[in-house]
Amino acid sequence: MFAYKVVMVGDFATGKTSLIKRFVDNSFSEEYLSSIGVSISKKVLGNSTMMLWDIEGRTEFKPIFKQYLNGAKGFIIVADLTRKNTIESIQEHIKTSLSVVSDAPICIALNKSDIKSDFSVNIEQIKGLSANIISVFKTSALSGDAVEDLFKQLNAKIIKEIAC
Amino acid sequence: MAKDDKTLKDDEALLEAISPIVNELIDRNYINSKDKIAAQIAPLIGSAIRVQIKSQKDEVVDALYPVMGNMISRYVAKTFQEMLESINKQIQEGLSFRVIKRKIQAKIRGVSETELLLSQNANSNIRALLLIHKESGIVLAHAQNPLAPINEPEMLASMMSAIKSFINDWIEKNQEHKELGEIEFGGNKITIEDAGYSYFAIITDGPLYANSHKKIRKVLESIVVEHGDSIREFHGDLSSFSNMTIYKKISYLLKSESLKQESSKKIHPFLFLLPLILVFFIAWSWYEANKDAKLLTEVKQKLYTTPQITSYRIDALLDSNIISLRGEVPSKFHKDLAESKVSEILGVHGVKNELIIINIADDPMQISSNISYLLQGFNLSYNSNISYTYNYPKVELKGRVSSESSKAKLLASLKKIDGVKEIKDEIEVVLEDIKTTIYFDKASSEIKDSEMDKLIELASLLKTQESKFFIAIDGYSDSSGSSEMNKKLAISRAKEVEHFLKNRALVSQTLKAQGRDELPLELGIDKDSQEARCVIISWKK
Ligand SMILES: Nc1nc2c(ncn2[C@@H]2O[C@H](COP(=O)(O)OP(=O)(O)OP(=O)(O)O)[C@@H](O)[C@H]2O)c(=O)[nH]1
Ligand SMILES: [Mg+2]
Asked: Are B158 and A5 within 8 A, CB to CB?
């Protein structure tokens, strides 16, 4: 029996809440309701319980509230494939996350893969940003593409680390 | 490890030395200045341990908890004692039938009368106890009362840790040395008892008994002593906790609590004999001269000596030999029983049964505060101002929202509140007026800085609106120049605005941009004026 905390980190409106909704409720909404503070969801995977912390996205005016990252066993950093600056922010989010929990594994979700984007991203380069990154996924909360993989891979990695 | 051990021992020695001093300090100073106590304890302990520990605050608290807990409890006990005294005074001042009843009950149960009063007033009841890993908010162990369980303890624990870190951060910034001690919502109280790497959350209906608090602290103390290491090293593997004594200890707390309550209900009827005589005697000597009052006393006695309803507060009023019963009971069974018992009494000619049936989930105060809690959140996030009136069991809602879907969400969540049976809604759905006019320079379709502000304001308004609606973006031009040219201008102005809203402001509604020849007549804009070079944005009908 395992129980641990995972935090979703990223710029505003990248789809953090939507990814959780897809994974936990298998639902999606077009409507954008910007998260305030933090909300928590729970997902049971096999014999582990993942507590998912969905925090307010970073905006120009409001940095991430670091206290919410305390005690996390893993991070999911979310960027929006259609907004270049959210991808450029990934590096900073990695830095913030690792400054709180230095050995936590990270998965990167490049979200909204269902929308055609007018620029391309170099996945290898993103992967190279930190040794803590275990995988980079192109996800879509709308279609559900790669969402399960994203969370499950992180779960597998965390369990492996806890068990050792 | 060896180094840690040493650190620990040194601390223990220090504490042994300082704790009597601290205790005396508390006693002596309490009378003079309550506020200063915290200030006095802090530096004393602080200087004693500062030498070894700088940043490892949690470790220190863990090590010191067994001693600190006692010091703190001493302080709390003082405060509590004051409260008890004031209640005692109240008791002595008001002499009524209920007082005597309580005095007798207190004697039977062997608890202080005041404590009994507290328990009657607050109906205190532990619903659940959670032992929570401080850093991650993960529940290490928990136990709950099967009669009033809580939903999703894991979620509650995580949420509480989030609130704690938010508030503690705020406190730290404001340079006060306090930790969050309790949270209240609805009629529930969550008491937090901190111990270094973990903390206890005790969820009660109403405040915690003083003696339960003491017991809880004892249990936490022993958990910290025995399992402190595995708590500190917790990385997510619960198996090391599930088969440990922790659960037993916690559930023991809960059990002793509920046992205590149950046993109080199951007093053998024989035990009432003594108080009965006493009550009778006192009542008789008080009211001998007054026949009505005598009948009333008899009624009250009857209510009191019927074991199933002894513990509920039932008032009886007498008017020309008709008895009215008022108060709250948990079921129809109790209501009927009270009526039949009272009507058996000689001299009672009729019973007006006005008892209200209230089960725990149906406590109107509780329901009302749940509704208020929900609405506050809703109003905040939808920027609406829905108000409610609650007339048991009916909720009436008034106000405006800007979309059907948010209204539906509100109604759906209201229905989830236990005990809400009937909702009457007078909520109006009113689309916000979004009409905005953007002006352009001659022969230009570039959005001017002065107009940009209007568009940004519009965009943020649109974000609060539902995305299923359509928005018309109509471009216009003035009459100078060729009509070919003007048509182009009108369309490219509209497109420009559309581009901004869609790609930069990320508006979610569907946009329909088009160029138009004729300005709407009702605006009364002269086709030659500069106001004619514009784009008008509105809901598409
Ligand atoms: N097409 C598409 N839209 C998405 C996808 N994921 C999210 N969205 C939309 O993007 C918007 C923002 O999504 P959220 O999940 O609320 O974003 P967030 O990161 O939680 O935002 P904050 O809470 O403000 O930080 C919403 O309108 C979603 O419907 C996706 O995979 N594809
Ligand atoms: Mg969100």
From this structure: yes
